Amino acid sequence: MPSKLIAALGLACLSWPIALTAETGYDAWLRYAPLEGAALAQARQSIPAVVALLDDSPVGHSAQAEIVRGIRGMLGRTMRAEGSLPTENAIVVGTLEEIRRAAPGWRLEIPVGAASLPANSYRLRTVTANGRVYTVVAAPDARGLLYGSFALLRKIALGQALAGVDESQSPYASIRWVNQWDNLDGSIERGYGGRSIFWEGGKAREDLTRVADYGRLLASLGIDGCSINNVNANPKVLSPDFLPQIARIAEALRPWGVRVVLAVDFGSPKSIGGLDTFDPLEERVAAWWKSAADAIYSAIPDLGGFVLKADSEGRVGPSTYGRTHADAANVVARALAPHGGLLLYRGFVYDHHMDWRNLKNDRARAAYDNFHDLDGKFDDNVVIQIKNGPIDFQVREPASPLFGALEKTNQAIELQVTQEYMGQAHHLVFLPAMWKETLDFDMHAGNSTSPTPVKALVAGRVFHRTVGGFVGVVNAGLDENWMGNHMSQANLYGFGRLAWDPDLSAARIADEWTRLTFGSDPTVDKTIDQMQLTSWRTYENYTGPLGLQTLTDITGNHYGVNVEASERNGWGQWHRADDKGVGMDRTAATGTGYIGQYRPAVARVFESMAACPDDLLLFLHHVPYTHVLHDGKTVIQYIYDSHYEGAEAVEGYVRAWQRLKPLVDERRYREVLDQLEYQAGQAEVWRDAVTNWFARASGIADAKGRVGHYAGRFEAERLALERYAVRDVTLAEDASGGQAVACAAATCTATLRYQGPSGWYTLRVEYFDQNDGVSHYRLWVGKQLIDEWAADRKLPTRRLDSTSSTRRQISGVALRPGDEIRVEGVPGGAEQAALDYIEIVPER
Amino acid sequence: MPSKLIAALGLACLSWPIALTAETGYDAWLRYAPLEGAALAQARQSIPAVVALLDDSPVGHSAQAEIVRGIRGMLGRTMRAEGSLPTENAIVVGTLEEIRRAAPGWRLEIPVGAASLPANSYRLRTVTANGRVYTVVAAPDARGLLYGSFALLRKIALGQALAGVDESQSPYASIRWVNQWDNLDGSIERGYGGRSIFWEGGKAREDLTRVADYGRLLASLGIDGCSINNVNANPKVLSPDFLPQIARIAEALRPWGVRVVLAVDFGSPKSIGGLDTFDPLEERVAAWWKSAADAIYSAIPDLGGFVLKADSEGRVGPSTYGRTHADAANVVARALAPHGGLLLYRGFVYDHHMDWRNLKNDRARAAYDNFHDLDGKFDDNVVIQIKNGPIDFQVREPASPLFGALEKTNQAIELQVTQEYMGQAHHLVFLPAMWKETLDFDMHAGNSTSPTPVKALVAGRVFHRTVGGFVGVVNAGLDENWMGNHMSQANLYGFGRLAWDPDLSAARIADEWTRLTFGSDPTVDKTIDQMQLTSWRTYENYTGPLGLQTLTDITGNHYGVNVEASERNGWGQWHRADDKGVGMDRTAATGTGYIGQYRPAVARVFESMAACPDDLLLFLHHVPYTHVLHDGKTVIQYIYDSHYEGAEAVEGYVRAWQRLKPLVDERRYREVLDQLEYQAGQAEVWRDAVTNWFARASGIADAKGRVGHYAGRFEAERLALERYAVRDVTLAEDASGGQAVACAAATCTATLRYQGPSGWYTLRVEYFDQNDGVSHYRLWVGKQLIDEWAADRKLPTRRLDSTSSTRRQISGVALRPGDEIRVEGVPGGAEQAALDYIEIVPER
Q1: Which residue in A182, A183, A207, A509 has its CB near the most CB atoms, within 10 A?
Q2: Which A residues 642-671 touch B at CB under 8 Å?
Q3: Are A737 and A800 in contact (CB under 8 A)?
Q4: Which residues are CB-neighbours of B241 under 8 A, at least 6 positions away?
Q5: ipTM rounded to 2 decimals
């Protein structure tokens, strides 16, 4: 059966030799790029000709085929895929049981037999028998074979020697899942990498090749579950006639050991079940959930379970009938239990109509307040899925106190891989560095004195829960590179690696990813690693330092700057900056009491302004702008400085990346450069907006004289304008000088007469690129056209605001006193070719 | 007028910074890739900020814009384009007249004023005046400004210092034209780079951007004329209602100083003119030509002239009325003369119904026989356009004797840039190396003892003709890289460079081209230069050594092997190989007398077998196979050896190219590798076909035992076949063993049981890739799919022959005794998934 075998062997791509596939980002960290030089020679020496599979599952076949594929890519050799132990050197991929049967004499040295290797574990070991050398990938189950095979290939790709390999790895936790927030219409909530790979027009996509390829990416990290629809769930997914759609997706993921998980709507018994209630304590409702679960498990026997978002952000929940979250979770969980399914119940429950005038109100308290009293009331197959911080994926939050508060309840940490508040694939932000701080944070839970970091709590290790772990919100899409940004792939890689082994350092993860994704050139690796590892701090520096949270438009696109968006509304992301000071007083003594939700050892540190880390200061305390930080700076000066540092750091990334040009493939070089150059401009927009806001609010000037003073900057509203009209932007901070110019005619011009010294200059044109049209711009010096461009980025706004504010940088322009610099704008669609300013920067 | 200026400044591409444009081959040698390191620093030091244009012609504006564009690409700086002499350092591009006016004091040191620089010349010179440094591009006319500007940019791109530049260049000859054989329907005769850039569906293409870009490529080489339609001309081009189509094309080429030339049909007065005759001596015919010329010149005042192919290969001509070529040429030329137009009259006139049994018949005599008696009978604006050799662009021909026989007639050499008999863009063949041999060949013409090389004769230098030069048959097409093969661009580059200066060496041309096209890495340059410079000899070695001509299907596609295609027919490309010997006896003593057409000093060398160069031996003499060459080998052994050497050389190109992987951009690396790997397989097809033919014909075995003995080769017809049927191929030499297998079922298999030693092997599958369908193949070892591919190359045949014979090479395959190697073929269209053989080659 050729076609079946092709699928099993993963050879669909054979028509091109792997080595010659263009670098598009599609293969992510599984490129299997050809080894060269000494690494190739060493690998050819140590890799035998045969890979034998002692297992007969589809997942086992995927493992064997992956080894064939990987070796083919890296060594240019096609190993022989065999089904029994060969009488020659070989890689042997086999379950412990089959290996014992085929080679009873082998000593794999696992203490007490198969049971001693936990589910999904693997063991890599060199065995010499009858003068032959076998590199063994052994595991208690097929997933373990797959994970071990990927681990073996990773070692080869990283140039590690295989000779004498001896290593066992077990997953840190049982739950290593991703959530995709894909809507059935094909759109993705908080998705920045294109439309859904799963859905289009209310159905599973015709071609599910990418779903299978996504399964492979996930499997390479040890991820074994994937929810395939938005947590703001369409009830339709539980309709019987929709089951075949889900089954098709499950079939595409199954060879990679990835189970489908469904997000369900708590109101389903009523909305699609024909009942007049969804009260979790009603028998009929319980029966409905049971029959719905039975139906779906008969179609998809290996379904991982359900994810449920209830009583949150407009979703219905148990509160409709005065029931508890435990009531809600258990009624669904009991329907899943006979099938071994899990219910992941989201802890992201809060009131978004809180009175902002009440200084005791605090959204950060919500998860703890809602769930800690219910500890012990949840069934054993319920898992509370808790966001890393108490708010919502902000650039800096303390670990959620709920992690330390559930002792008799399963929990999982929800990390956001998609960069909702983190630049949305337009900014480079390496999140594993941030996640590590939370995962390693000691909650001082339990009764022993040994550390109880968040990772151990969520894995169930502290309170001896058998279920728990890690959930990543990923929104891989149809973009060729999955994430909309090559660098963002590192976040998925890092999530998966941490879910498998949260003890890995961020540096190690970054380095593995870089070498697998961009090759082993030391300059490339060092440069990219450094960019990745500093990127979170850089982003924090220009978007919300000192625990301010991300100072973005929290009721809008979660992308551009909007310092006040969090204030004077019920959403509770308040930072309470005013003319005197800034920060949320969450102390037990004078504030909201949030700090009191932590165990005393943690609360003591947070409560004390002296002990509280500066990074979290404004998240936990309200202070005057003149408050002096541990490093001796005032808060206000720190806000100024950090923003300038952040913007400069991104300019540094651009320069560092440019030095890699000869070392990186053309396409990815170009695409990453474009992203970084855009980010550099946007970092300056943030810098200027935030620092001006705080300068105005505090009335305290920047000690370094930068804020409000921009050498070489010419506001568009002050230029000689033809047909351009001066316009107010959405917020004063959205434009330099608080105003822009926009064009309501067919074409408009803004002209500046240059009076500075002769020389070579870089011109920066700050313009507005909305998503409701494509304007065109031309820049002239005298009669000479110097540059032209289109405002065609995909940015989430239709307004003149910080989101649309975009920089065009034109280097190498010769200027002479008296030159006329003229920008011509041609509106397109609803976009009015607006301009903010022109900046003239001398070149060295 | 912005849009006009954009066009004038050539800034259409500005929307992407040039440095980041992907390498597609479109920009050919005008990439203006960013300089780096010391070269960049030096160039930034020496290039000023201003380029001033002292000229007001469109061509002058192109020159200025090109400098802006080039400097922008290489230095990342946009120079100021000014229209008068600036009071600062500048590049000054100006006609001698305008420079004298603007800066009367400048000493450009041209002996006696403007007249001393011939048309289209340029002078590059550094002038210091008033403490300022001007780099001057001076010329007597706008074309000279353009050529000088391109020369300046070439210097910068090649890293040559500009400081103190002092150089004058004049074109070697007045005619530097290309002929495109494009049909009005958009197809191209002998075109291997896609469809026509000029025509589609009987009209000029809607979008002529590529025509303008082609004009720029031509201008960069100093080419100033381009015939835009097939020499087998459609009479329609002279219809009055067609003129606007031609005028549009002329407009696109005009800013680059390239004049349109038209190929016309001699029967036009009758076929479209409404006359009942086209007799050149008829008044009415002369009047018709005059009015046709007047009409076209009124639409296109700068038309270069006409090209005329008459009485050749089915075209009508003066013979219809018993008139001479002079009569024919002069009637057309007199119509052109008042407008300054030239008539290029093709010397490619011969009888293709010659009796092959008459050993005195000889097509090689035709050009001389047809034209030398007419010497002096042609008007002054007639130019006889003579192919480099006496036959037709074969891999090796002596220079045409006609070059030495016209003393009172203008002549031009016709060189073929498109690789009709030279692998047609599927094979790497650098033609300038071949052209140089002809151009430098001393014809011993004239009466002085000084050398009279072909280049001097065609330029009119020997017999003091004012008109003459170089015509290249180019068929640039819509393929992104213009030629269908990146490496083939070097042939256009080389043609243009030689037309400008035929004293340039092939090595210098190759090196310039490589550095401009692939950058300045020394390993890259050395590798590509060596490949290019040896490629003609390599191609000759496997397609027709010792002057056999190209042993291809001369009545068919001019591509695959067909040793006998030249024989026993009237086309006259006979090599007369039989069981005793081989070669055309063209001696004066015993042969066709062709050698007698040369001047005695040349004839003496050719006539004597002892003096005749081995490379031309079989073109000029008939010898037994056992004839011993100057190097001591017999002719037959030389034929064997050269074919093996040629095939091995191409394998060497593949290996050499593979070493460039990290140094060449991804796409061009991949595309060139694909071409070279294909060529390596095809060279083996040629090797086997030709050596087997001569082994059979001569009855003399290869002394090295290779011919007919192929280690590791398994003929498909001997394998275990399921549904595959044994088939005869077109010629015995078209397949190894004289047979192939083809599949008339839905799918067929051919299976081989391997019995050799265990190890790593390369498998070579020789299959047939016709152009009337796309078959699919899969190769299995045991149950394992190892490779799959589609037979989807574009090769010019619908048959099982040497043209369709194609090699698939699969490296890194582990084999064990007893393995079943199985090829599965799935026919597509009329193509029957045919197989020739499988070869198993051990890897080291």
Answers
A1: A509
A2: 662, 665-667, 670
A3: no
A4: none
A5: 0.90
